[in-house]
């Protein structure tokens, strides 16, 4: 069992066969469900495999069968905010399904994007899940031309299955709740990143608030991060009068709340704030943020269900799974 210098000393099926005193094909049959093999032979193989710490090379099996169990997960900025939780939930759901998640963090430069594309399309992934609005359309186009099924979360693409959140409904609800409380000077804090989810929330809130007769200020942070929320606060609070702010995600809401307090505004006393995502930090005592909840586990399950549907019928029409985002009420704004 000595490997050449500098090579990993992996335990192979041949090593198991030699330890068990059986043929290499007997080892293969022992690990193939439904294969014909004597129970005594199978017991020998399993005992030898356990002694050696052998694991079946599922990747190699998939290549031989021309069927990969790899599922590409394409995301930009996976460490930031809600995307981190969605990435973790989808990885867990895919592993539970028996798939092998292949995480592709696209980066933001042209060089990083090109490297990510080479890695992703150099493997025979059975499907690709795009977890955010940031990766460029070129990823989707190349996957489509390679015949790989595509599931997109939080964006819209032709010829792809979709997992979507009811951004429009939640943002309009936020506007109506503010107006019902008697607020007439509202604001929406968006982001210059202008990803589809964030842009949909921003536009729906502004439209609904104006329909209700409220004045709406629309401001943008540099990005949809804590610092972006501070950016938005610096613009909003340079002039007096804003009573309530809807932030397109929780990270921005947290930054905006901290900046509001630095300039002497009390939340919720002087300013009401609603966010979107329900990150764990939203419940922290310093924020107690009222927000719309996205459930990463539910979104991951919806993506896996779409993948199963596509595998069962590759020619079926693209499907959309739309999930609601219920309001979680805390102290930054109370509808009552």
TrEMBL record:
PANTHER family: HTH-TYPE TRANSCRIPTIONAL REGULATOR GALS, LACI-RELATED TRANSCRIPTIONAL REPRESSOR
GO molecular function term, any single one: DNA binding
Source species of the chain: Pseudochelatococcus lubricantis
Keyword hit for Transcription regulation: yes
Keyword DNA-binding: yes
UniProt-recorded name of the protein: DNA-binding LacI/PurR family transcriptional regulator
Entry superkingdom: Bacteria
Keywords per UniProt: DNA-binding, Transcription, Transcription regulation
InterPro entries (alphabetical): HTH_LacI, LacI/GalR-like_sensor, Lambda_DNA-bd_dom_sf, Peripla_BP_I
Domain HTH lacI-type: 11-65
